[in-house]
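TL;DR need structure tokens for one chain.
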Amino acid sequence: MEDLDLGRIERRAWRSYHEDGLMDVAFGLLLVVAFAGSVADRFRWVAYVLLLLVGPALALSKRLVTAPRMGAVEFGPTRKARKRSVVLFIGALVAATMLVPVMLGGYDWLRAHPVIVPVGLGFLVLLAFSGIAYWLDLPRMYVVGLLFGGAFTLTELLDTPVLLLLAGATVALSGAVRLTRFLRRYPKPSGTDGAY
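>> reply
TL;DR here they are.
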């Protein structure tokens, strides 16, 4: 009974820690930057640099925004194992995305299947977010996966990157709303500097 209560407390703390919407903002910005990179041409390298900065920016935001309000949160081995599972799962998906086309015949095969490839890409994106939703216990990521997967598929099929912008902006805006609620619900205690 005590273990069950501790599990519930940890799960509640975990979900509260991710109520800040920062992950949603980060994912949304990733798609917005991907859109910018697809239309920037000469300045596409700027988008690539920004893509590399999203992850560190998310970690820093967690430290400066979330940690002072939630305190020094140390989750148990089960949560840590789930985080590792997500990293390994997404790494495997990325490897599969790169290897499968090569195994099927390279770019000639890709060009010969103009519908299967976009649908497969969208499915892989959905699968990645489903892994995040399942292992990190964040059900809203299923919705993000559907939105992003659909955006990638339709972008390829309709040959327009605008859908990436719309999907990314929608998720980023949703995250911003969530962040605003989080800041109101958990005001920063006086005398905190953001350190763990």
